User: Fold these one by one.
Assistant:
Number 1:
Amino acid sequence: MRETVTSVNHQAGIGLEDAAALSARFGEKSARVGVIGLGYVGLPLALLFSSNGLQTTGFDIDPSKTEKLERGETYIKHISAAAIAAEVGRKQFRATTDFSGLREMDAVLICVPTPLDEHREPDLSFVRGTAEAIRPHLRPGQLVVLESTTYPGTTEEVVLTILERSGLHCTPRPYRTDGQEVTGSLSGDDDFLLAFSPEREDPGNAIFRTHQIPKVMGGVNGASAIAVQALYAQVFERTILVSSSRAAEMTKLLENIYRCVNIALINELKLLCLRMGIDIWEVIEAAKTKPFGFTAFYPGPGLGGHCIPIDPFYLTWKAREYEFPTRFIELAGELNSAMPAHVVAAVAEALNRRKQCLQGARILVLGVAYKKDIDDLRESPSLRIMKLLEQQGAVVDYHDPYFSSLHKMREYDFKLSAVEPTAGALQSYDAVLISTDHSAYDYHFVVRHARLVIDTRNATHAVKEQREKIVRC
Ligand SMILES: NC(=O)c1ccc[n+]([C@@H]2O[C@H](COP(=O)([O-])OP(=O)(O)OC[C@H]3O[C@@H](n4cnc5c(N)ncnc54)[C@H](O)[C@@H]3O)[C@@H](O)[C@H]2O)c1
């Protein structure tokens, strides 16, 4: 059951009328939606709008992606080609690199990357580039929504500033939310509307589908808030409006910082438990039985993915403007980024106990994706571990069901093809390192045939035989 939008305080200026008219068009599904950036976030979002009956156009600078989509093909494992082909076939969805079509859109959603630069500071070049690309095509009455994760203030300070160079205006004004009701100073002469709504996509999550994940949003003013909530209420089961775009930006960072800090905590406790001879995974399972006040986080070989290792540092950077040190974030970053070196030390120690050394040892790494059952290598700790192993003289091979070879990346250039983990192959390595616990692996088989197994994920927990070969770290 969808919660519906908006009881409006009618004291109105043009901005509010625009918002009400636009909201009505979203409700009638006669509005057109444009999504810029067709990656892990943008593509499922575009398909969600399209499959709910709104004409949707995806925009990307990468022609190989738009061409594939136009042919009804996919490039993301968990998004089926059939779903894309169905929407393209119904002419509900199309993809293009021609940004002039933005003018036709009623709502434009920005889903481009927000990485860190080489100094680990926010790299907003993609967001800026996209705002610049929208600017010549911006027209009165359009709603623009930033979805990319970023520091509080980006929507107003960066996107709004660039869009207003078009000569069209949207004025930030405070508004209040009371449940679904928007009140406060709603009047104004806005030409366009602007909001922020953080993406909460969790690739590979089989329990929550995109439309089931509650959608948080905040406008730069009340009219924008009304319009953005009307838009998302068409496709999400639940929408939550907060009182500003800055609060919405901060909400996303809180979620990711919470994960980052708790993962660091559990990683630190794992190191202590290893020394104390206590099984951290057993302890977590026991603690999980508490029906309130405890959420389980699991230790691993380090942080990965496009979000958790990166997003918290967007806030650290912004906090400097307020002369405020974000100590939890810094400490969590320090602890989490030390985990790959810990894994390598554990491999060396395990070999040492067998009178072998890392220098010249042959190691097979199982799983290079940053988490189980997904085809995403970004910031994967496995890659860092492989590099550290090589630096210490080990001969490293890998297998991952999602990557048949490893191509050159920004930081790594392994030039490796995947080695099938057959019985013979497993036996031929000095150690097999489980870095990502993909479901596709038969861990009984791995332990039976490997000489030594280093398990960073407790993937072998169900294996009862030959446990003396397993070292958990
Ligand atoms: N991947 C996730 O699980 C996830 C979850 C929540 C939030 N986010 C956030 O969502 C945003 C997008 O992440 P993603 O994982 O979808 O990234 P992605 O790299 O998978 O996709 C980004 C897409 O944007 C395109 N692009 C880059 N610059 C562009 C430009 N100027 N104009 C048009 N297209 C452009 C790229 O070609 C690519 O297709 C980031 O801010 C990220 O932090 C990601």
Note: The radius of gyration is 25 Å.
Number 2:
Amino acid sequence: MALIKFPNAYTADMAISTGRNRFAVIGEPIVAVDLIDTVAAPGSAGGDLLATDGDAQAWWRTEGARVPAGDLPDLRALRRLRSALRETIEALVDGRLVPAEAVSDLNFFMQSAPASTRLLLTGTGLDAQRQWHPEYGGNPRLAFIATQAAQFLSDPSKVRRLRRCANPACSMIFIAVNPRRSWCAPGVCGNRARVARHYRRTGRG
Ligand SMILES: [Zn+2]
């Protein structure tokens, strides 16, 4: 499956496309939002960009240096984290109570691979490094995504920036760093809306 990359004017990052209807936005301020956008919500067009191990490997490659190095997690664990994040973030966007089970799942991922700070002597002073602990049985990549999300989602001023794409047929959620942003990817949903307006105006299509 070829990944097509195209620029996203608002985030200066990119989206990956795997067909006519399905794409993922890459480069949202927290990896958790990229992750939840790999699956379309029920009833919307598209499928799952993490359907197979090969899909997951491609997705981890696009996240690259944003996540800790080390072993890739089991695909089922990655999808379970995604479900917990999707439930949590959608509840926050819609102003609903966050389901307790989703919160306990996120806590599980963080506790199972905690991080500590390690000081290293350098030639001129000290360097502080974050060290992840897979010896507790968890996966540092998943723990990192959950921890980064926990810090973001517990800050109401940041939660206010979470938005659903203005295209009603699109299930993407994004972080509006630029408050004028209304599309997950202006080159995709924004273009579709412009084309639809054009056809309405000209009476074609
Ligand atoms: Zn969209």
Note: Residues 1-14 have pLDDT under 50 and may be disordered.
Number 3:
Amino acid sequence: MHTEQTPVVVENGLRAANTLPARYRDNSHGRHPALDLAAGTLWRMPGPFGIIRLLGPAYSLRCVVFHDISAMESPFTRGMRVTVPPDDFEAALKFLTQYYTPVRLQDVLDASERRGLPPRPVLVTFDDGYASMMEYAAPLCRKYGMPGILFLNAAFLDNEGLAPDNLVCYVANVLGMEAINAAARAIGNTDIPKLESLAEVFSRFFPSISLAERRAFLEALAHLGGINGCQLAGEAGLYLTRKQVGELAASDFEIGNHTYNHVHCRSLAPADFGQEIGRNKAELEALSGKKVRSFSLPYGSSADLTNDLVRNLQLSGHEAVFLSESVANPRRSDRVCFDRVSIHANKEDAFFFEIEVLPRLRAVRNRLSRGFGLVRMAGKDA
Ligand SMILES: [Zn+2]
């Protein structure tokens, strides 16, 4: 499988924003007023899609990712910026169906140099299997004729357990960050600096610990909070049921793999792939009655797309991989790795900025940082 990794580390003013998983980055909410002004000005110009092409490179597949489509955040999601209100989601679907051509995974897999994709193609995806998919997202997608991919973790279907992120979020919201830090100390790793925010837990702490340490941390967290994860998950009803997954798979939603337990894949040893990737794929295929042929990386970072993972995905029949670094996908017919944009806007100029402008700027920045890296390496060799 050919994959292209987008460097996460950059050396300009966008660095701080890009070291966080896409969903924790500030997008439209609280964005700098100058960016909002630029978005409005660009959108009002004649032919904004033509103008923005000047930024190049050719931007092929637009992929977007959503998580929870709900009117309100809950203690399980507050602070993670995964929740989009149904009205904003509907505005996004209106924008996408008006200015883009919705495509399915099959269209993307079939696209070749000759046949290619239709003009301005867009692929809509959903991660984590929130129950709100059934209540809001799927009915709205049907209303607008929008197909999609659902990337699921089988461990949490039927609300049999709480996903790590929702447990951490719940404890942080109910008991505060001190409880998170106490659980982090309980795993006995003295190198862990004090965690100040949820973003630090997901973008720094989790990627730095082993799977065993992560399990110990989550157990300590539940113990300290007096939480029975299974019971709380059942009460919260955050996730889809297995039956609903079958129903969604029978409509216009393809089911994709998102690991069994929502783990950072850089923590996986080759021996873990069977449990996290193979088992998840097999369970989802049994539920959907269809082949699972795509994989989205939990937390969306290219740093998790290790060579071992790429090999395992290839051998286990995954044909496309999705990141969430919000970078434009260049026009390449042999691509099997696609980046996705996390959308939080609610009006046309802001959608345009999130989907068309910022991903192109990030692609330019990544190319420049690669160029600077090569110059530095050349300098060192000399
Ligand atoms: Zn996820």
Note: Confidence is low (pLDDT under 50) at residues 1-29.
Number 4:
Amino acid sequence: MKTLMAGYARFREGYWHRHQEIFAELALKGQAPGALVIACSDSRVSPEVIFDVAPGEIFVIRNVSNLVPPYAPDTGNHGTSAALEFGVTALKVRAIVIVGHSQCGGIRALMTGPSGSHGDFIESWMSIAHPARARVCDAPDAPGDFDAMCHQCEHESIRVSLGNLLTFPWIKSRVDEGSLTLAGMHFNVQTGTLKEI
Ligand SMILES: [Zn+2]
């Protein structure tokens, strides 16, 4: 907590001071971010830091392993789907970018398989990426090295999520009419490089 409050003090002195006009305008006019970014909750992968954007520029969804579930308009508490709906239908973002990353703990857990010590939510959530795991494990040229398989699965899970985005009717229609673009990217934590997949 001390670390957080010390950071807040620095924010008030520095960042806030430099951006207070932007914050005041955003408070007055509301937000109009151009892009929606879906990233992992991982502490090393902050979209605002990686894309070096000002306040109000990106609408961010973060969850375990930057996954997008398929469209399922039922009574479940779909946090990611609700944020997608708001970003696309209310804010009318013009791009959705999924940012995966290296050394993703959720993907490693998925590739390891059921551990016997199940939590309450993570295993069910990660089942969204089961098709990615299957693509990696069932490929005839699958690497024998576990780290390499995890790396491949990080990429495949982004592709699965890109496909799932198109199951949302209000995303599919905007992509088809050309008012919304979708992209997948992979961030290398060690080198700080971002590659489109
Ligand atoms: Zn991750």
Note: Residues 58 and 75 are 28 Å apart (CA to CA).
